[in-house]
Design a protein that fits this description.
alpha/beta, Rossmann fold, four-stranded parallel β-sheet, 5 helices
Length: 176
Amino acid sequence: MSRDGRPSGERATGKGPSREFTGAHDGKGLRIGIIVARFNENVTSRLLAGAKQGLLDHGVTADHIDVSWVPGAFEIPFAAMRMADTDEYDGLVCLGAVIKGETDHYHYVSDNAIRGVGSVSVDDDIPIGMGILTTENLDQALARSAPGKENKGYEAAVTVLEMASLAEQWHKLGED
């Protein structure tokens, strides 16, 4: 069953031509929260720099960016949930680095962190840019957090702006 009561798989019908929605990357007036893990800080601090730059490059002002540091990636979903519960943010960016080691610990941390963030986004109805790296080694993590627009923190920041824009467009549909 869909959210509006239609049987699963049944498409919504509307009057007139089909509509297409595209998110913008304009962050003007938006307040964004960033959650960043301290574990592997040599990587996550670079992700944070990229995320901040991505937000600033797209119109979010520095005074509308709040950063919360947590111990590690496993703690990110809890912080995201609490920040979402404040209703202060138009979107969140989650940053962490889980680097594979010699044990299965990597799998448990990365799976729970990523699933937890996904749950927060859906349950709390808030766009989240996923910037939690899961890499085989430190070199891969450093490459994905290098300065520039290829930085995964930068990409997560731009993603949250696009999703916030789409969320606003869909919200306006409900007002009509």
